[in-house]
Structure formats: structure tokens, C-alpha cells
Amino acid sequence: MAQRNPYEVLGVGKEAGAEDIRRAYRRLAKQHHPDLNPGNKQAEARFKELNAANDILWDEKKRARYDRGEIDESGAEKPHYAYANYRDFAEGAPGAKYHAAEGMEPGDLDDLLAMFGRGGRGGFGGARGGANPRLPGEDYRYVLTVDFLDAVNGAKRRLSLAHGKSLDVTIPAGVRDGQILRLKGQGGEGIGGGPRGDALIEIHIAPHKLFRREGDDIHLDLPVTLAEASLGGKISVPTPAGDVTMTVPPHSNTGGILRLKGKGAPRPDGSRGDQYVALKVVLPEGGDKDLTEFLRQWAPKHPYDPRRDMGTA
Amino acid sequence: MISFEAVCRMVEGIEPRELERWIHERWVLPESLPEGYVFHEIDVSRVRLIVELKRDLAIGEEAMPVLLNLLDQLYAMRRRLKAVADAIDALPRESQLALQALLNDDKETER
Questions:
Q1: Chain B within 8 Å of A143 (Cβ-Cβ)?
Q2: How far apart are CA A170 and CA B72, in angstroms?
Q3: Whose CA, among A77, A169, A197, B92, lies 20 to 30 Å from A22?
């Protein structure tokens, strides 16, 4: 089994600090420990993988060497030369990002592949004859990271390409993370008069500090005052398209979820997802004398136990 | 998502000013966002490659674009040939055998 990138194994980012790594390891190790999963081969394999990943990441020196590509996932020395590593990428689909300059790329290949069809030895028009092959050009692949709100509302972006070129990309409103946009004819030149390839642009959506996206729905945690939650009222709520007014019903609580219909991301069919607003009751910062005084009087007369379902004494 | 600063930390022997210039020359193509550059694995790997070409193989600034373009051509060719190989893989067995026979035949005539 090929080993996975230790950052992926532990589910932490490249920027994670030592403390994040320790916490992630502990959490996962508890979950997959073989003694806690007797006879579960999968858990055992996962536990081994976790330990190998932790072995590299907890040790700062080893981690730095891994980051520089000097050792591999198992901690073994890697071949020193970067070209071997670069080749892994360049020969795969992501490599098409660094395509050769216009007019240079298919030329040689054109001759080469044309030999298949022209029949004669070396392609000099021999007696066998055959169809002149028409092959489409290579599809160029790019990754485009899009701002959260641009992904919901749509935007235009310019992508810098190799050899001084650029490509204008229209990001459709409501585009999803991982979606691939195809720009027809923006790839490599065709061979033997074949059509040009396409540009395939994979969309990555950057996170937003307030909103979360699930499919076409938007999720938002919204702080409300004790009075707004208890008494209800109209409050202003941010949505990707701007602020809207929302009615909080009386006797709302932390964890209560309100739906703003049609305030989510647009769908290709013209409809829209919804926005879900999770209420979070926030008490006045630093306490409030009157409120404290009121609760001293009120609490003994109105006992309630919000922890009764937790089985605590 | 890998930041400019992270690349400078990850790749031994790279100066931020140097990396800026390589991006400007478009030897490396990170995404350019309002909050800064975003690199992907292939970009970091390419930075390492350029560092190595420069330091270990003493390729100068003048020759670098020529060399990178040749490498890009080579890899484009290899990706295309891989596509051809995959296509041959999908052919019926007898076509593959026929092709193999022809290729061997070619070799023998060359001798």
C-alpha cells in the first residue's frame, strides 16, 4: 500500500504547529488504537499509518527534511534530485499547467504521430497509405482559488499562464468547490488539423470568516443578545448578497436554527439554496449588575436542568 | 494551499527576492490572489527543480528559460505518448499484437 502524505494522515495543514499535531495525533490514535478495535484490520493499518506520520511530524528536524523532500513518508531517504520528484507531477495531469510555448509543443509530436497514419516507414508516404490522423490537442489543467463570495455571486478572474499569456475566466454564480470549468479551445494545438484541446479549470473555494457552504446552502453562526432570544424581534443578518432583516421568534435559544429561504447559492436551474442561521445567545460582556441582581431573585423560584439528558448527577 | 512564505521555508536555498523574480518571469506559476500567492504541490516541486538546476548544474539566468521550455516540451511529449499508450491499451488484443509485430518488424529491418 502506498503511503499517504503525513499531513493528510493526521488531517492537519502544512502550517500546523507542534501542539496541533500532537492534538490531532492523540485524537486519531485514541480512535484507531488496536486494543480498542480488537480484530479490526483496518483500524490496525490506520494506526500504523498514524504512527509513521506522527514519527515524521513531531520531530522538527525530520519534519523540515520531509517538507524539503529529502525523506519520504516512511522516513527513508529520497533520491536527492528534484527532477525525479518534479517528473511525478509533470507527467501527470497537473503537469499540463506548464505546457510548452505556443507552436513548439505539438510540432515534433505532429510529425511523430503522423507516422502512424501515413503508413510508410518513417512516414515518408509509403505504399501502405492510410488516414491522416486528426487528433485533438492536449487539455491544459489549472487550479483557480476563488474567494467565497465570488463563488456564490459569480465573478471574472484572470489566470496567468506560461509564456506571458493569460486567460479570462468567468466564474459562474453558485460554482461549487472542486467543480471543473471547461473553456473550449483554450488548450494545446491539435495535431494534423485536429481541434484544439480545452482548458480545464478546477475551482477551489477559499473559506470565509463568517459563512460556511454545504452544497448550495449557506450556514452562519449568529450571536444574539439574551433579550433578542427571549423576547424575539427583528435583527439584521449578513448574507452573501448583503444584509437582510430576519425575525427571531420569542423564546429562541442557542442552537436554534432559522432558515432564510432562497438566500443561499444560485443553482444552474435558476433556483437558489437557503441560508441557515444558527443562533448563539451571548450574555453582556463582563456581566451586568441589574441582570445579576434579577437572576439572584429569579433562579431559586424557577429551577430547570439543561443537563438532565447527559446522565450527570 | 501553500503560501509564498511557506515555499521559502520548504525549499532550501531560495531567497524571497529570487522567487519573486521567477514568478515575474513566469518560470513558476502560483495563483495570484488579493491576499498573496497560492502555490500548489507541482509549483513547489518546480521551484525545487529550478533551485537545483541553478545551484547544482550551474544553469545561468539566461539559459534557464530555454531549458525550462525544453523540459516543458519533453513532458508534454511524454504526456501525449502516455495518452497514446493508454489508447493502445484499450484496443482489442489482436490489434495490440499486430502493432507489436510491426514495431518488432521495424527493429529487425533497422539492423
A1: yes
A2: 27
A3: A77
